[in-house]
Amino acid sequence: MDIWTVVHFLHLLAMAFFIGGQIMLAGVLVPILKGKDEMKAVAKRFGLGSLIALGVLILTGVQMAGHEDAWGDGNLQAKLVILAVLILTIGYHVHTATKRWLDPVIFVLSLAVMGLGVVLAH
Ligand code: HEM
Prior knowledge:
Elements: H1 3-33, H2 37-67, H3 74-96, H4 102-121
Bound molecules: protoporphyrin IX containing FE.
The site of protoporphyrin IX containing FE has 23 residues, from helix 1, helix 2, helix 3 and helix 4.
């Protein structure tokens, strides 16, 4: 196992938290905790976790893109444009806090970034 296997592993681990956490939140926690005080604390904690996961994704992604000389790849460029829109949308979501319709938008953008990642790796 070389260092790039570890970097790839960390990229996938952070992706699992980032995407899986959204599914867990929407599918399990929101239906149970909607309107309760705990929901705010759960959302805050997941927000912090997501921020860390996003940091790991960017850090490991930049390393892999450099290692694989992939910066000229159209799929990576499309992935980064969608990622930029995703980050702006998350920022707006955190800023406004009440716009629930942004949740599915963030989820779809996240899936698009993930999908382009899978295309990149194959
Ligand atoms: C929300 C952010 C991100 C998500 C959800 C994500 C997700 C993924 C996924 C699912 C893969 C496929 C891995 C596999 O099939 O084994 C992947 C691969 C890859 N990602 Fe990301 N990624 C993100 C951010 C980034 C960033 C910011 C960069 C670069 C600046 C990047 C660069 C790459 C590269 C180069 C690969 C290909 C790795 C390989 O060929 O083995 N990713 N990503």
